[in-house]
Amino acid sequence: MATTTNVSTFFFFLFLLSSSFSFNITRGNPNYRDALAKSLLFFQGQRSGRIPNGQQIAWRSNSGLYDGELAHVDLTGGYYDAGDNVKFNLPMAFTTTMLSWGALEYGARMGSELPNTRAAIRWATDYLLKCATATPGKLYVGVGDPNVDHKCWERPEDMDTVRTVYSVSAANPGSDVAGETAAALAAASLVFRRVDRKYSGLLLATAKKVFQFAVEHRGSYSDSLGSAVCPFYCSYSGYKDELVWGATWLLRATNDVQYINLLKSLGGDDVPDIFSWDNKYAGAHVLLSRRALLNNDKNFDSYKQTAESFMCRILPNSPYSSTQYTQGGLMFKLPQSNLQYVTSITFLLTTYSKYMSAAKHTFNCGGLLVTPASLKNLAKQQVDYILGVNPLKMSYMVGFGRNFPKRIHHRGSSLPSKASHPQAIGCDGGFQPFFYSFNPNPNILTGAVVGGPNQNDGFPDDRSDYSHSEPATYINAALVGPLAFFSGKTK
């Protein structure tokens, strides 16, 4: 019968798929500890502000030293989000939250890289604190006009574009960016709690105030700021997920019942099949499920169920899977900067696997039994692919392995450094001969993870192809945790 044939074909396909997955897993054995060190070094290359002594990415120097001046405030510091020279606070705050979560979950496995992780976090939180406290009633959420900046190809050290300052307020709300900022500050407060109690206290107190603002003045920053953030970092998922995310992190940091009550009022039953700087539901559900699994708190069972529903939509051999995989085994979510979704989801895979192991827990996706090893093996598959276990044998982390992207879409990397070319390169000066050159970038942005291959496992290594060749802070931030997880296994 036709139905029997279809079912047989379906299970044969699953057998082939699972076989190819295990084949890649057994062959992949990258140096995770080296990759971890490099993934953190990348953040030095994204620094805005005054570069400190000891900077290892030596081709970078001071930039954005007058950021905030147009608003008569000091907004120096923080990170450029990707290959441009703009500071977008929504992805920067998510980057900070993920780095902090990685330190909290995997700090014991980081070894000598834990201080470097804290340094990467603090470079962001020092800036986010300025944004939250500089002017009463305002939260600054970005510096630099993206529409002007994206027409230029110049080093951050040479910026001559307007450094417009953007903010949200009661009259022009931004619950999404405020909720994420609160999450970042609350998560970071936990990272510094044992090593710098005063700083930790400042982070948490500020997180509470910013989150109160997010809750009391609800609205999307996309509506308030328009073309200043859209389409670059438009809040496509709305702001409710950031309220859930912020409340989740404040609950973790305080144990205050008010955040449990807020979570109940917000609902949060959404079960997406993605996790990113824009959509935080899956991350919140995994973090909240920790209480159900590790503390046996039945009040959080619903979050455990939604976290597991998410996993069932990711696992390739699950009957509920809605996730595409390339022939080489890479998770493929969206064509533009796909590795941002791979790294973020991989973080959730390793973290939920960790919780499951501690609780000796398993669950089912229909008839499929899911064990901690199921999630860990899929996570390893993704990490190994990024680090070079793939059809092209290319590492998508710059400077890792022998074969990695040489023409990344990144202004500072693609233009000669100030040391080798002291003359300023203006807004249009970088296009010829640098942007359009086929030569490799003169400066290696060590540790940068690019947008990654296409759905056919192909990668052209083309500087103008930003959707595949541009690195971003939030791609790296989510990978730090899984790299620490696996490097702790292979010391």
TrEMBL record:
One Pfam family in the UniProt entry: Glyco_hydro_9
Give the catalysed reaction(s), semicolon-separated. Answer: Endohydrolysis of (1->4)-beta-D-glucosidic linkages in cellulose, lichenin and cereal beta-D-glucans
GO terms (molecular function) for this protein are:
cellulase activity
One GO term (biological process): cellulose catabolic process
The record's listing under PROSITE patterns reads: GH9_2, GH9_3
Gene3D superfamilies, alphabetized: 1.50.10.10
Question: What EC number is given for this enzyme?
Answer: 3.2.1.4
The positions flagged as active site in the entry are 409, 461, 470
Top-rank lineage group of the source organism: Eukaryota
Under InterPro entries, the record lists: 6-hairpin_glycosidase_sf, 6hp_glycosidase-like_sf, Glyco_hydro_9, Glyco_hydro_9_Asp/Glu_AS, Glyco_hydro_9_His_AS
Would you indicate the residue range of the signal peptide?
Answer: 1-22
- The name this protein carries in UniProt is Endoglucanase
Where is each Glycoside hydrolase family domain found? 32-482
Origin organism is Cucurbita maxima (Pumpkin)
Keyword terms of this UniProt record: Carbohydrate metabolism, Cellulose degradation, Glycosidase, Hydrolase, Polysaccharide degradation, Signal
Family assignment from sequence similarity: Belongs to the glycosyl hydrolase 9 (cellulase E) family.
